Amino acid sequence: MSSGIEAQVLQPYKYGFVTDIEADVVPPGLSEDVIRLISAKKGEPEWMLEWRLKAYRNWLKMPEPHWSNVTYGPIDYQGISYYAAPKQRPKLESLDQVDPKLIETFEKLGIPIEERKRLAGVAVDAVFDSVSVATTFRETLAQQGIIFCAISEAIREHPDLVRKYLGSVVPHNDNFFAALNSAVFTDGSFAYIPKGVRCPLELSTYFRINASSTGQFERTLIVAEEGSYVSYLEGCSAPVRDENQLHAAVVELVALDDATIKYSTIQNWYPGDEEGRGGIYNFVTKRGACRGKNSKISWTQVETGSAITWKYPGCILQGDNSIGEFYSVAVTNQRQQADTGTKMIHLGKNTRSTIVSKGISAGRGQNTYRGLVKILKGADHARNYSQCDSMLIGDKCGAHTFPYIDVRNSTAIMEHEASTSKIGEDQIFYAKQRGVSAEDAVSMIVNGFCKEVFKELPMEFAVEAQRLLGISLEGSVG
Amino acid sequence: MTEQYVADFKAFAGNGAGGAPAWLRKIREGAIARFAELGFPTTKQEEWRFTSVAPIKETRFALAHAAGAQPPSVAAIEPLLVCPPGSPRMVFVDGRYAPELSSVGGLPRGVHAGSLAVALTSGRNGELARQHLTRHARWHESAFAALNTAFLADGAFVHVAAHTILEQPLELLFVATGGRQPTVSHPRSLIVVERDAQAAVVEGYAALTDDVYWTNGVTEAVVGEGARVEYYRVQREGRRAYHVATTQSRQERDSFFGLHAVTLGGALARHDVLTALDGAGAELILNGLYVLRDSQHADHHTVIEHARPHCASHEFFNGVLDQRAHGVFNGRIIVRPGAQRTDSKQTNNNLLLSTDARADSQPQLEIYADDVKCTHGSTVGPIDQTALYYLRSRGLSPEMAQSLLTYGFAAEILGRMGRADVRDRLDPLVRAALA
User: Fold this and answer.
1) Which pTM value belongs to this model?
2) Of A123, A406, A434, B384, which has the most beta carbons under 10 Å away?
3) How do the domains of chain A map onto residue ranges?
4) CA distance B261 to B231
């Protein structure tokens, strides 16, 4: 391609502003006292504190993993502040009492927390640093018995439910970052869909990191009872800073008989600048358990942000006939790195999984797909189809594919396909010849490349995703 | 357990080790030190996740050395040969060259095939060996290659001079005879095919024993500019044997290398195939077939390194796994920065014939250049029910239909082999393994 590629005109990160708000920040450092403090601030019961401490003690014994295909300097776990909350009145009666500055922040991010600005029926839980500031449409949801609130609130109000499911999919000692999260998680969302209910709204959480020198450790738990359905959306952003901030979240999904959970993520944390300074380390553990028969969990992710993305949303297909899906678009530009993919563990009979992963590398980005498909002895007639395609834009980026396939049942069928190729030069030429600019041509080609994934997203998200992709790749072709 | 090998090495080196030249002795010293440092790999290591070498680690192997033992007869050897009768052959018994069983008399001018031990001590060949031996196979990175290098004493030395064409396939047969106690041999081969030359080499491993023994081989192949080499590797070790091997190739500009690995034997086998396309326009064909049953375990790790632009590589590995067999395939394609216009394709298909059989497949792409076309695919599954149904509807018995489809699956790899004469000799071996 012409040398014009190098003439990159990088659009600044749009969500990089800082909200000037008085915050209650715990001094940096991690110890049992800090965990006790977080627990006390959240007004948690004793069992929760015990659980956190157990996780912390385990974490101390765990070595930090380094097997991924990403490079980063050492993380100073004592240099992070594990709790930051905007100061506000202790008890909120209604949304009107939320600090206007916060509402403004979320407005700027395009997230409506005022209910009258209802956007196509999306209920939002807005998380600002370590606390949930507002959850919309709670009453509407409550009428159907749906619980949708901040997890810290759920621990207080619905302890039995939380206690039953928290850590049942991602145990507190699952891995290094999950253990850290279990010890210090501050907020996140909790959703419970009762038996036979089809959630009338899209549930959504928007995460915002604002304070500096903090990490964000949220925890999300979604339980779908028998025959229920829920679609959940997750979005995130952070201010532009030269430091690297750690985001180590845990998401647990539980689907019982005939239940369906659809989980969509648009990850747009600050990716760092063109020299690779700053940006979020997005080290997340996401896992769903299809516990019941005929249950289904579908992950859709669009990863455009973060300096480093390292996550594998997975499904444990326990129930017979259960279905796991993973649709992913990961974009790495500038010096971003991504090592992402999925894990599909087939335990039940006739379980099916589909993996569609699209990686796009531009600039000096390094994009890795890593996935595991494991079909165990009892998973008769299990079926997997995986497709991982990578597109390269520019000659300094890299695309890597590392699938792990482990089949222990001879009636199972699994197929994996992957391809890596350069963006079609002749396609760009054709578009230019028809009067379409190179930039628009690239955007068109990339959108076509990602179509299979975008069509899985809820409509508003799909529009947002296409726009984001355009911004992320802006200037990657001259 | 590494101390035992270090002690054995001291004894081996103390004997003068066949009068090896000083440069080699130095490398051996380094290799045993490296082995002691690395130790036997464990399943905690990524490269060995699915293959436990504990049985090798825990067995006390004595260094196999046929000295004094009664060498096998020609009649005993002949059924183990793969190449058509009359082809030139070199036979190695427990890793040592057996001239009385070999026949390399009629080789054309410019082709030299002989014992590595002899070549090391002779002038011109010694210089060639020094230039290439241990320079390609990365013993620093592999404990087994390091161990082989430490005990490097004999094996095949094949040199085809520039512009020379070797019409007949040259067979290298490594036979194990076993012994009262478990033995290990470390055969080491070097194949150098110079500019614009052509050759076909068939490297076979077979046994005259049902005892426990271990073959730890390394072969280095250098394919010069514009040269064409067909290399077949037929592993038919004994049912209780352990087989660990590294095959390392390096290709220069516009060369062709066809590597065909057929794995039928051994209780536990691990074969690392490392290829480097180190000249523009080089082409590599990498075929593999493994047919396993009982509790056989075979692990193939292949690395195709595209270091230069305009190279092509095509890799096909098929596995047929019956009873409690476990097949592991790990294939990595690396495209180095600047290796533009790379065209690389990799496929691994596994057929599971029993509920206890297991397949692990890891095709991997690691790409650092943008103008490339790389694909990989992998499948694991039982026999296609619709194909079975079709054949049965045509009047074939279920057994007949299954056997036909299984053979067809294996024959796909045979069909990709370049030489019809070798393929025709391999066909019955594969049929027997499937029966």
Assistant:
1) 0.81
2) A123
3) 3-86+164-190+205-473
4) 8
Residue B337's closest CA among A395, A360, A6? Answer: A395
Listing DSSP states for B87-111 in one string gives --EEEEETTEE-GGG-B-TTPPTTE
Q: For the complex shown, is ipTM > 0.85?
A: no
Instruction: Give the dihedral sign, CA A20/A22/A26/A28.
Output: positive
Query: CA of B345, closest CA in chain A: separation in Å?
Result: 9
Nearest Cα to B194, choosing from B115, B135, B253?
B253
DSSP H stretches of helix in A351-456: 425-433, 438-449, 451-454
Backbone dihedral region of B225: left (phi > 0), alpha (psi from -120 to 50 degrees) or beta?
beta
Domain boundaries, chain B: 2-279, 384-435
Chain B contact for A53, CB < 8 A?
Answer: no
Q: What backbone phi and psi angles, to 5 degrees, belong to B398?
A: -55, -40
Gap between the Cα atoms of B223 and B203, Å rounded: 16
DSSP H/E element including B11: helix B2-14
In this predicted model, what pLDDT tens digit does every residue of B78-127 receive, in sequence order?
A: 999 999 999 999 999 999 999 999 999 889 999 999 999 999 888 888 88
- Whether residue A242 lies within 8 A of chain B, CB to CB, comes out as no
B224-267 pLDDT tens trace: 999 999 999 999 999 999 999 999 999 999 999 999 999 999 99
Contact A337, A364 (CB under 8 A): no
Are B374 and A419 an interchain contact pair (Cβ–Cβ within 8 Å)? Answer: yes
Q: Which two tokens stand for residue A118?
A: 């209802």
Contacts for A118 with CB less than 8 Å, ≥ 6 apart: A112, A137
CB contact under 8 A, A407 and B362: no
From B326's Cα to the closest Cα of chain A, the distance in A is 9
Other CB atoms within 10 A of residue B336 CB = 18
Listed in sequence order, the residues at least 6 apart from A242 whose beta carbon sits closer than 8 Å to its beta carbon are A277, A278
- Closest partner residue to B367 (CB to CB) among A375, A406, A420 is A420
Structure letter (DSSP) for residue A115? G
Contacts with B370 from chain A: Cβ below 8 Å: 392-395, 397, 422
The Cα of B308 is separated from the nearest Cα of chain A by a number of Å equal to: 15
